[in-house]
């Protein structure tokens, strides 16, 4: 019933001291309303929590539910720059300082000091070998050990002796890795059918090979020699599978170092690198799926 000036106005409607009514209702009436909504929203919250709990029961803590929908691994490199373009002058350290800084930061994860713990790391050999089976993801065996990957395997691109990673000499290094996918088993090429003729000598058992060449025809003959450093100059299978952050917190991806030893000066050169495997594909929509391209321009004489 709306309030008016004659019966005391809105103040009396809000609280009537004579009848002890709040907004036209007695305390008992408000109590019933409170109990109704308490039970109503309590039921809704219970249904919501129950649904979430039921959903969580179907999700593994260690393995993505829709693993079959995950694309093949991406191929990425360090240093990274805007539009994957690197231009520098070997005579001017300021021009390549961002690149060497990124390489130093990245390689610090592979320092020998951090891989000494025998409970967390193990030696997996310096030659390509078969997958390192550490049990299924759902097995209750706890945290898995990780394979060591000493920086020395990357030769002059390790940053141990040449802290400028070749940039000072106009022979830049690039560190390459396959991105992590939980429980992914990359398969080495079983045939040479889809591999360029120049890359076929790099094929060997238990290895995902990588090969780089000029992206554009006009750059043919201007790239010079590319040196590859790492186990088998590719990605060895004993570093797979990856068990995820919970079970494999110390995991180190195998690396390949590329050193471009004789790039033609004062020219923009576009280089494409690819990895080859039976279950590694490429996509025009994703330029880093199984491959990448990079632009170099080394200025100066």
TrEMBL record:
Swiss-Prot/TrEMBL keywords: Cell membrane, Disulfide bond, Glycoprotein, Ion transport, Membrane, Potassium, Potassium transport, Signal-anchor, Sodium, Sodium transport, Sodium/potassium transport, Transmembrane, Transmembrane helix, Transport
InterPro entries recorded: Na/K_ATPase_sub_beta, Na/K_ATPase_sub_beta_sf
Location(s) in or outside the cell: Cell membrane; Membrane
Membrane topology field: Single-pass type II membrane protein
GO molecular function: ATPase activator activity
Primary subcellular site in the record, as a coarse category: membrane
Residue stretches spanning the membrane: 34-59
Name of the protein in question: Sodium/potassium-transporting ATPase subunit beta
Lineage of the species this protein comes from: Eukaryota, Metazoa, Chordata, Craniata, Vertebrata
């Amino acid at each position: 019933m709306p309030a008016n000036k004659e019966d005391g106005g809105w103040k009396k409607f809000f609280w009537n001291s004579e009848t002890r009514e709040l907004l036209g209702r007695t305390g008992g009436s408000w109590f019933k309303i409170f109990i109704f909504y308490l039970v109503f929203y309590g039921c809704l919250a219970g249904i919501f929590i129950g649904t979430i709990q039921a959903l969580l029961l179907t999700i593994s803590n260690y393995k993505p539910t829709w693993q079959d929908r995950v694309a093949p691994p991406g191929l990425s490199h360090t240093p990274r720059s805007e539009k994957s373009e690197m231009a520098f002058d070997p005579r001017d350290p300021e021009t390549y300082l961002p690149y060497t800084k990124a390489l130093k930061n990245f390689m610090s994860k592979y320092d020998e000091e951090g891989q000494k713990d025998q409970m967390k790391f193990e030696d997996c050999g310096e030659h390509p070998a078969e997958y390192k089976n550490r049990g299924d993801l759902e097995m209750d065996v706890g945290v898995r050990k990780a394979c060591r990957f000493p920086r020395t395997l990357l030769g002059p691109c390790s940053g141990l002796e040449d802290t400028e990673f070749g940039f000072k000499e106009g022979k830049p290094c690039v560190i390459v890795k396959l991105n992590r996918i939980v429980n992914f088993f990359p398969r080495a090429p079983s045939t040479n059918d889809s591999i360029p003729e120049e890359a076929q000598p790099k094929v060997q058992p238990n290895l995902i090979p990588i090969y780089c060449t000029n992206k554009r025809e006009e750059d043919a003959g201007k790239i010079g020699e590319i040196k590859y450093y790492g186990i088998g100059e590719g990605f060895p299978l004993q570093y797979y599978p990856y068990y995820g952050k919970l079970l494999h917190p110390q995991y180190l991806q195998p690396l390949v170092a590329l050193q471009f030893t004789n790039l033609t000066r004062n020219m923009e050169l576009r280089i494409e690198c690819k990895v080859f495997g039976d279950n590694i594909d490429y996509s025009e929509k994703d330029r880093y799926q199984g491959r990448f391209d990079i632009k170099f321009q080394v200025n100066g004489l």
